[in-house]
Write a structure and sequence with these properties.
Layout (H helix, E strand, L loop, with lengths): L7 H23 L6 H8 L3 H5 L5 H27 L2 H18 L1 H11 L2 H21 L7 H23 L6 H16 L6 H13 L4 E2 L2 E2 L7
Antiparallel strand pairs: 1-2
Helix pairs in contact: 1-2, 1-4, 4-5, 4-7, 5-6, 5-8, 5-9, 5-10, 6-8, 7-8, 8-9
């Protein structure tokens, strides 16, 4: 039986996704700062109101794009945690993922770095990570941390990754494996959890990243998005 007309919410969701997809294409091609909302509206073939009814500005569009991508990354980190039974692997995976894509694509590094430089985006990501953090702390039976200390630790992790992504956005070309090791050691030291099997943890994460099967920004890594 044929399906009836789309609901109002379904139409809104489709329009929102179209705006995000078009915006991402322009951000990668022209750069975030160089892309205007007028560019987005023209390429999407929509009216001004169609964009501004869904997003306040292009900052909000970019944050929404990266927020969705981070959600995918966190789901993958849960898989790693349960397969390898490693809290450090799960906790470090989102950051190492960002280092991997940033080291492979300067245009993506610039986009991710823009988001890291916006405090409202950092706050959103801190909220997301905090929920995820609490979930796994409880699952591993670790002592519950003071909420403010947890927030501080999360902020330091996000800030550290933002700085290293900025390094790649501005032309740095050190192997992402080296940056990843620094990130994992920082987490280990901050939390007081010995990384006795550091190479094993990193090897597991690297093999997953380099398989090309993960998705980022709506594409598998093997599909040439990072070329």
């Amino acid at each position: 039986m044929a399906r009836g007309k789309l609901s109002v919410q379904e139409k809104r969701d489709i329009a929102r996704r179209q705006i995000m997809d078009v915006s991402l294409e322009l951000f990668l091609k022209k750069g975030f700062e160089e892309t205007t909302t007028r560019d987005i509206i023209a390429k999407a073939g929509i009216l001004n109101g169609s964009l501004y009814n869904r997003f306040k500005n292009k900052d909000e569009i970019l944050i929404s794009i990266l927020r969705d991508a981070i959600g995918d990354i966190l789901r993958e980190s849960e898989t790693i945690l349960r397969q390898g039974n490693s809290f450090l692997a799960a906790l470090s995976f989102p950051g190492i993922f960002q280092l991997y894509v940033a080291s492979r694509s300067k245009s993506i590094a610039k986009l991710v770095y823009v988001v890291h430089c916006k405090w409202d985006a950092v706050e959103i990501f801190s909220d997301i990570f905090e929920v995820w953090w609490k979930h796994f702390v409880e699952e591993f039976g670790l002592a519950k941390a003071d909420p403010e200390r947890s927030r501080l630790v999360l902020s330091s992790m996000i800030g550290s990754i933002g700085n290293m992504v900025g390094y790649y956005a501005n032309g740095g070309n050190a192997p992402y494996q080296e940056a990843s090791k620094h990130h994992l050691m920082m987490i280990s030291t901050t939390l007081g959890i010995p990384a006795l099997n550091l190479d094993e943890i990193l090897g597991t994460i690297f093999s997953i990243l380099e398989s090309g099967e993960l998705e980022f920004l709506g594409h598998k890594l093997s599909e040439g998005l990072l070329e």
